[in-house]
């Protein structure tokens, strides 16, 4: 199989995976609000969700490196299905918190599995395609999947409201229940598809259980030490923390913010889905454009990341001051176009500076930093949003993003690969 063939195969699998994720994106916070949760409650739920991910990210990265990446990924789908079942039946904060823990655990199990598999498999295949170009292609598949999922996710509640009005025997269902059911069923189907598309080489002959535990622990410990000592990886981890804070801040509160703007207008929940879909299409466009931008910047990944993150911070501040649905949509799309433009460069540097045997763990550490930022944002921004408004928390997030971007300037421009 060629590099391009492998990229297409992985891209299809990722498109399906993120389509399933996208189904919940336009309505997740609305689901919580429909169950009676306040903004502070939502902040607590999201902190538990991403906190569960953060606690398990690194240990499970070591498990994926030790036991097998595809096997670990498939387990994440099963945990995700269980989380959806609990969320479907949850009718108050306690059960929603349990669902959040399960869904956060599923994300931790998934993190760093197939991405690591793809990089190692890509290097073994013949062909001239660069990894940065391959990542850009994969990102397009991912964002197309997210866009499709978001459109479906935004359309389903309106469809449920029109199709099952009172006194239908289904009228007692929450208008968002179809989203949860579809995610659970689609995750089950994806297990079968992944077994067909992702072909993992046989793992080494298993050693005793205690040796496996030692190997996984040592792998995680070594990767952690390298992540915060390496000249490039250290800066990536620091900026990733703020990236996670900003991402969580907008993901948690864009739906309540937009709900206030469209109150009393003709816009429905479908508008949320359309906006989410457009965001992902903009992200796909930025991924494609990043290849050209990198050439213009003479291959300087750090310059690309610095300039786009600073511009994204400014766009975020502008978003925080919008007062009309259309101006909100424009600023929202511009923000995410800039915010994601440097992601491919970040992934390339992360892979290039990491050794194969700890790759899943290093990717999990990076994801751990995102989730740590998300926990901080969910608690801190939740408090600010409750007492001072969402605009205040977003303005602060934009300032943090601009300030943290300066760390890229301290990253070495050229560095021989120092693997973990």
From TrEMBL:
PROSITE patterns according to UniProt: MFS
Organism domain of life: Bacteria
Keyword Transmembrane helix: yes
Record Gene3D superfamilies: MFS general substrate transporter like domains (1.20.1250.20)
Entry's transmembrane regions: 12-32, 38-60, 72-90, 96-119, 131-156, 176-199, 232-250, 270-291, 303-320, 326-342, 363-384, 390-410
Family annotation (Pfam families): MFS_1
Keyword Magnesium assigned: no
Ranges of residues in domain Major facilitator superfamily (MFS) profile: 1-415
InterPro entries: MFS (IPR011701), MFS_DHA3_Transporter (IPR053160), MFS_dom (IPR020846), MFS_trans_sf (IPR036259)
PANTHER family (alphabetical): PERMEASE, MAJOR FACILITATOR SUPERFAMILY-RELATED, TRANSPORT PROTEIN-RELATED
Protein name listed in UniProt: MFS transporter
Taxonomic source organism: Photobacterium arenosum
């Amino acid at each position: 199989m060629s590099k391009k063939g492998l990229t297409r195969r992985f891209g299809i699998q990722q498109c399906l995976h993120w389509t399933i994720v996208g189904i919940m994106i336009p309505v997740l916070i609305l689901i919580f609000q429909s169950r009676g949760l306040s903004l502070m409650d939502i902040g607590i739920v999201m902190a538990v969700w991403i906190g569960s991910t953060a606690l398990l990210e690194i240990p499970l990265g070591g498990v994926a490196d030790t036991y097998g990446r595809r096997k670990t990924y498939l387990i994440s789908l099963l945990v995700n299905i269980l989380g959806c079942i609990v969320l479907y039946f949850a009718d108050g904060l306690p059960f929603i918190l349990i669902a959040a823990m399960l869904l956060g655990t599923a994300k931790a199990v998934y993190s760093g599995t197939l991405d690591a598999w793809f990089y190692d498999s890509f290097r073994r295949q013949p062909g001239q395609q660069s990894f940065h170009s391959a990542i850009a292609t994969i990102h397009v598949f991912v964002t197309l999947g997210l866009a499709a999922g978001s459109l479906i996710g935004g359309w389903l509640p309106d469809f449920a409201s029109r199709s099952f009005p009172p006194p239908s025997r289904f009228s007692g269902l929450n208008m968002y229940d179809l989203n949860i059911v579809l995610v659970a069923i689609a995750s089950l189907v994806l297990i079968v598809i992944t077994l067909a598309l992702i072909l993992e080489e046989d793992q080494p002959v298993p050693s005793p259980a205690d040796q496996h535990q030692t190997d996984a622990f040592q792998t995680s410990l070594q990767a952690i030490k390298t992540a915060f000592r390496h000249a490039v990886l250290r800066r990536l981890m620091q900026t990733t923390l703020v990236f996670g804070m900003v991402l969580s801040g907008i993901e948690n509160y864009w739906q309540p913010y937009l709900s206030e703007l469209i109150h009393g207008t003709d816009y429905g929940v479908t508008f949320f889905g359309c906006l989410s879909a457009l965001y992902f299409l903009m992200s796909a466009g930025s991924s494609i454009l990043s290849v050209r931008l990198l050439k213009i910047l003479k291959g300087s990944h750090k310059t690309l990341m610095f300039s786009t993150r600073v511009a994204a911070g400014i766009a975020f501040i502008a978003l925080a001051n919008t007062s009309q649905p259309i101006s909100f949509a424009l600023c929202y799309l511009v923000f995410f176009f800039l915010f994601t433009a440097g992601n491919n460069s970040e992934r390339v540097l992360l892979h290039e500076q990491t050794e194969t045997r700890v790759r899943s763990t290093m990717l999990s550490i990076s994801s751990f930093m995102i989730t740590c930022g998300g926990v901080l944002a969910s608690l801190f921004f939740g408090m600010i949003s409750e007492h001072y408004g969402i605009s205040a928390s977003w303005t602060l997030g934009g300032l943090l993003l601009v300030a943290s971007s300066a760390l890229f300037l301290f990253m070495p421009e050229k560095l021989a690969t120092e693997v973990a």
